[in-house]
Amino acid sequence: MLLKNNIPFKYVFGKIKYEVLLVAVYTLIIVILHDRFNLKHMAIPLSVPMIMGTVISLLLAFRSNQAYDRWWEARTIWGAIVNDSRSFTRQVLSFVDDSAYESEEINHFRERMVRRQIAWCYALSQSLRGLDGKDGLEKHISKREVAYVSRFANIPMALLDLHARDLNYALKKGWLNEFQQVTLDQTLSRLCDAMGKCERIKNTVFPATYSLYIHFAMNFFILLLPFALIEYFGLIEVPLVVAIAASFLLIEKMAIHLQDPFDNKPTDTPMTTISRNIERDLKQLLNDHHLPETTQNVDHKFYVM
Questions:
Q1: Membrane spanning segments where (predicted)?
Q2: Could you list the residue range(s) of the whole structural domain that residue 268 is in?
Q3: For the whole model, what pTM was predicted?
């Protein structure tokens, strides 16, 4: 996710540098041809690109709004994951028979569940970005559990399965009553629903024809623009056309990046940062003082992942 401050111009310009260069060269060629050969017939009425520009602006605004809705839905889902992870940990730590509080086995059970929930958050973020969901799990769960989940294509699903198995085990041992087990299972169901929603966003492609038609229309508008301005501005129209084209191109690029919030780009939903915050909160509930390092305030970074 891009932060408010310190977004470098190089990053912004880098998204459209080749397109801007082509527009500048194209416009300069038209100006030279017009001035050298006095081709008055090259000019077209300014109203033609103005009408096209208005229509394209509305289409780009609608497209950007739809792309932002996808990005915001992804962020909302991860906000729910934060809440449910905290609730799950609180329930695991409190829904145990007080008479057995000092039991080493129960304390191990609690710690195992909480650390596995931390692992689930990291595994889900890795999987959504197309990376290896097993990467880094050994820091949070046992080698036996890592070996178990490695058999599955969907690592987060396998971790939730281990959660469910442990809840059943706790119920049979009498550490949880049936009501507590159902409540914890409902929390797991919400986590599973959140995972499914993220996968839906990840696997649902933004309509390609819609993007393609707007892209073609915008390029046609940029091609016409120099012919409409040539009689009014002369050589000055080169930076003017470049500025107008850059505005449209940047809006289109912004929409393209926002429509895929799990693509491992700076504009992503900051799943790693959110997972790190979850790890910090859950470890503090465990009285574990080995907290993860934060990268949020690094001066040279203008985004968080």
A1: 20-37, 43-62, 205-226, 232-251
A2: 9-285
A3: 0.87
